[in-house]
Structure formats: structure tokens, C-alpha cells
Amino acid sequence: MGAATKVYLEADTINEKCGFDFKMITGIITFTTYSTSGVAFDLSKLIPTRVHYLAVEPKGGYVAVYDYTNARILVYEAGTDGAALDEVAANTDLSTTMADTRFFALGK
């Protein structure tokens, strides 16, 4: 299973700005060894009901996408086949290329 270290920078309720009691989480994630099924990224302790939006900055030539159904981050890179992005291979060490990667999440 892929692994990552989360360091939260800020957690805040932004009710006064959008009127829906959304929680806003910003922070830093450092990816380590990647697995094909993605990296577990469960924010349920901070956003207990549902993550509505989660963005991870692209870094080191990699693009990360949040899987809302499984609460995992999938990482992609440009493949040599010229097609769309390919998922990173299992056991890829991302600790250097995706160290201190920022993320932003909204939810309830």
C-alpha cells in the first residue's frame, strides 16, 4: 500500500464566506513509496461527512488526482506511449520528487 505523511497547516470553517459550514483544509503531504491502488488519504477526522473538493499541486512532473470514492490519491506521469497520463508504477519512490506537496480540501 502506498504511503504518505500529512502535515496540516490550517483547518477552518468558512461558513461566513460561503454560508454552508464547509471545512477548509490546507496542508502539506510528502509521498513515499507508491502503490498501484494509490495512497490512502482519509480526511474523515477533519471533514467527517464528505470531501467535496481536493486538489494536490502538480510537482516534479507528476500529477495527483483524488479518488473521492476510495479516499485515495492516485499519481500520474507522462508515459512514453504519447497517450494520456499513465499511473505511476507500484513501488516507485516519490519521496524526493513529491516532498512537501501542498493540498487544499473543502468538505462538510
Give a written overview of the molecule.
The protein has 108 residues and is mostly beta strands. It has a single domain, classed as Immunoglobulin-like (Sandwich). The chain is 4% helix and 44% strand. The chain has a 4-stranded antiparallel β-sheet, with no helix packed on it. Strand 5 and strand 6 form a beta hairpin. The longest helix is centred in the N-terminal third of the chain and has 4 residues. The chain is elongated, with a radius of gyration of 15 Å.
What is the element layout, followed by pairings?
Elements: E1 4-13, H1 15-18, E2 23-31, E3 39-40, E4 51-56, E5 62-67, E6 72-77, E7 86-87, E8 101-107
Antiparallel strand pairs: 1-2, 2-8, 3-6, 4-8, 5-6, 6-7
Principal-axis shape: elongated
Beta-strand residue fraction = 35-45%
Pick out the low-confidence regions: none
How many helices? 1
N-C termini distance: 27 Å
Q: What value does the Rg take, in angstroms?
A: 15 Å
Average predicted local confidence, pLDDT: 82
| Helix content class | under 10%
CATH architecture: Sandwich
The strand order across the widest sheet is 1-2-8-4
How many runs of DSSP E, i.e. beta strands? 8
Order of helices and strands: EHEEEEEEE
In CATH, the topology is named Immunoglobulin-like
Structural class from helices and strands?
A: mainly beta
Structural domains: how many: 1
